[in-house]
């Protein structure tokens, strides 16, 4: 049995950053600061999945994508005017999703995505993921996300990404 909670307290954010580093095999300590910064953005929503033993095994978060934000500007450069109006003008930016490797393929990613987007009032949602991350891409495609652009090289990345979007009701 698991429970879904809001990503709120500092203790939870600490567990989330540890999970992030474990999932992405990263030493990126700035994830905690990024989450805390993003939590101040308009429309921020974040959820975690915890075991009965109060261990965070997955999380997802995002916020309203607005001009002036780093990733909004990065994505805006990749889209033409018509695509920008459709996808970024009234958009919820899906920033992160991670599920602990030993809890994958159990529906937790889908639960987190569904919960995160449940009460979002934006017209669209957009995300990026690595082009070769086939498990993430197939998860998103099973939830009716579509590829908007591939390849996409965010910032100074040499690794190709894909921009995916979904229209919301």
Tell me what you see in this structure.
- The chain is an alpha+beta fold and 169 residues long.
- 34% of the residues lie in helices and 31% in strands.
- It has a single domain (2-167), classed as Gcn5-related N-acetyltransferase (GNAT) (Aminopeptidase), CATH 3.40.630.
- A 7-stranded mixed sheet has the order 1-2-3-4-5-7-6.
- This is GNAT family N-acetyltransferase.
- Its EC number is 2.3.-.-.
- Residues 2-169 form the N-acetyltransferase domain.
- InterPro entries: Acyl_CoA_acyltransferase, GNAT_dom.
Throw out a few tags for this protein.
169 residues, alpha+beta, Aminopeptidase, seven-stranded mixed β-sheet, 34% helix
Topology summary:
Blueprint: E1 2-6, H1 10-23, H2 30-38, E2 45-51, E3 56-65, H3 70-78, H4 81-87, E4 91-99, H5 108-117, E5 124-130, H6 134-142, E6 146-152, E7 161-167
Parallel strand pairs: 4-5
Antiparallel strand pairs: 1-2, 2-3, 3-4, 5-7, 6-7
Helix pairs in contact: 1-2
Total of helices:
6
How are strands sequenced across the largest beta sheet?
A: 1-2-3-4-5-7-6
Number of beta strands = 7
Using the coordinates shown, work out and report the CATH topology.
Aminopeptidase
> What's the SSE pattern?
EHHEEHHEHEHEE
Query: Any guess at the CATH architecture?
Result: 3-Layer(aba) Sandwich
Largest sheet: 7 strands, mixed
Spatial shape: globular
Which spans of ≥5 residues are poorly predicted at pLDDT below 50? none
**Distance from first to last alpha carbon:** 30 Å
Mean pLDDT: 91
- Amount of helix: 25-40%
Sheet/helix structural class: alpha+beta
CATH superfamily: Gcn5-related N-acetyltransferase (GNAT)
Could you tell me the strand content as a percent range?
A: 25-35%
Cα-based radius of gyration, to the nearest Å: 15 Å
For this structure, what is the CATH class? Alpha Beta
Number of structural units classed as domains: 1
Pfam families: Acetyltransf_1 (PF00583)
Protein name: GNAT family N-acetyltransferase
Organism: Lederbergia graminis
GO molecular function, one term: acyltransferase activity
């Amino acid at each position: 049995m698991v429970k879904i909670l809001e990503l709120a307290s500092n203790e939870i954010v600490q567990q989330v950053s540890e999970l992030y580093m474990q999932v992405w095999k990263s030493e990126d300590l700035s994830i905690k600061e990024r989450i805390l910064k993003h939590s101040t953005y308009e429309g921020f929503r974040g959820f975690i999945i915890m075991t009965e033993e109060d261990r965070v095994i997955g999380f997802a978060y995002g916020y309203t994508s607005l001009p002036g934000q780093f990733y909004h500007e990065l994505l805006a450069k990749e889209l033409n005017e018509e695509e920008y109006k459709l996808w970024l003008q009234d958009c919820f930016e899906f920033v992160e999703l991670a599920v602990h490797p030993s809890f994958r393929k159990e529906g937790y990613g889908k639960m987190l995505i569904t919960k995160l987007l449940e009460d979002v009032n934006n017209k669209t949602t957009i995300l990026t993921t690595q082009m070769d991350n086939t498990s993430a891409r197939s998860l998103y495609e099973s939830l009716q996300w579509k590829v908007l652009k591939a390849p996409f090289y965010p910032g100074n990345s040499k690794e190709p990404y894909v921009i995916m979007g979904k229209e919301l009701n």
